Amino acid sequence: MAGGIVALCTGSDGGGSIRIPSALCGCYGIKPTAGRIPRAGANAPTWGTHSTVGPIARTVRDAARYMDVAAGPHPNDLDSLDAPAGGYEAAAIGPRPRLRRIGWSADFGYAAVEPEVARLARAAAERLAAAVGAELVEADPGFDNPMAAWYSIAAPGDCVLVDSMTDEQRAVLEPGFAAFTEQARGLTGAQVAAGLETRHQLNRTMTEYFTRYDLLLSPTTSITAFAAAGPPPTNIGGREVGPAAFIPFTPPFNMTGHPGASLPAGNAANGLPVGLQVIAPRFADALVLAVSAAYEADSPWKYPAWNG
Questions:
Q1: Tens digits of residue pLDDT in 262-306
Q2: Structure-derived torsion over alpha carbons of residues 151, 21, 120, 2, reported in degrees to the nearest 10
C-alpha cells in the first residue's frame, strides 16, 4: 500500500494489526467497531471478539468506501451488526463535525514512549482538534495496563489453530508465534474468566470517559519502525521493556471493540513515520471517518512512491 502497488488492502486487527502497520508505514487505517464487518469464515476467529477486519487505505474516502461495501450483518457471524443508515463515504465527504473536548494521552499512564514519537503525535493531535473546533485536554483513559488480560483471551484460540496443523506446518511456525501459543497452554479457565471481567470493566471505564470527551487521542505506537526481521527494541524512552512494549496503545480497544484509526502524524528525524491513534465511542465509526477526513483536509499526506 505505502509502496504504491495497491490502492487499498484488508487488514485484520486483533491487537492493532490494522493500526500498527498503518502507523509504521505512514498509511491511513481504521479498525471498525467489533462486529461492524462480519467474520463469517468456516471456523471461529481464534482471538474471539478481539479480531476485526478493516481497511488500510491511501485516503480516508477510500477507507469509507471499503466500509460501505463490507459492513453489515451476516448469519454466520454471531456478533455482526447492522450497517448504519447514511453510509460511511457520506460521513467522510460531508460537513466536518464540530466537537467540544478531545482527550489526549501520550502514555495512558503506564507506557514507555520515545519522546520524539510523543511530540509528533501530540502536534498532530493539536491539528486534529483545531480541524474540528475542539479543546484538546490532557486526559489519561484511567485503566491499568490490560495486556495480561488481552493475552488470556486471545492466546488460547491459537492453541486450537496450532493443534489442527500437521507436524510439517508446526515445524515452520514463526518462533514468536509458537512461543505465544505454547505459553497459553498453562492458562486456567479462571484466568480466562478474569480476563473477560477485565474486558468488561475496561469497557465501562471507556463508557464513562466518553461522557466527558468526544474522542481519545494517543500515539499509535511508542516507536518508529524497526527492522522487519526483529527483534523489537528492549529499551524505549530510556526504560527497559518487553517485546510487546512498542504497541501499548492498540490492544485495549480490541478488548472493548471501540472503533479506532491511525492517521499519519509526520516523520521522525530518522525519516520514518509516526501515527496518531483516534478512538471514538462504540458504534461511532462514521465519526472516526468524519474526523479523519477533516484532519486529512487540513494536514494532507502523500507517499513518495505515488505518481500524481
A1: 999 999 999 999 999 999 999 999 999 999 999 999 999 987 556
A2: 180
pTM of the model: 0.96
Contacts for 76 with CB less than 8 Å, ≥ 6 apart: 38, 40
Domains in the chain, start-ordered, CATH in brackets? 8-138+201-298 (3.90.1300.10)
Q: Taking the mean position of all CA atoms in its chain, how far away is CA 226?
A: 18
Q: Can you tell me which residue has the cell 474516502?
A: 61
CB 15 within 8 A of CB 154: yes
- Asked whether the beta carbons of 187 and 156 are under 8 A apart, the reply is yes
Each residue of 175-229: pLDDT tens digit? 888 998 999 999 999 999 999 999 999 999 999 999 999 999 999 999 999 998 8
List the grid coordinates of 174: 514463526
Q: How many CB atoms lie within 10 A of CB 88?
A: 28
Q: What percentage of the chain carries pLDDT values higher than 90? A: 84
Q: How far apart are CA 120 and CA 117, in angstroms?
A: 5
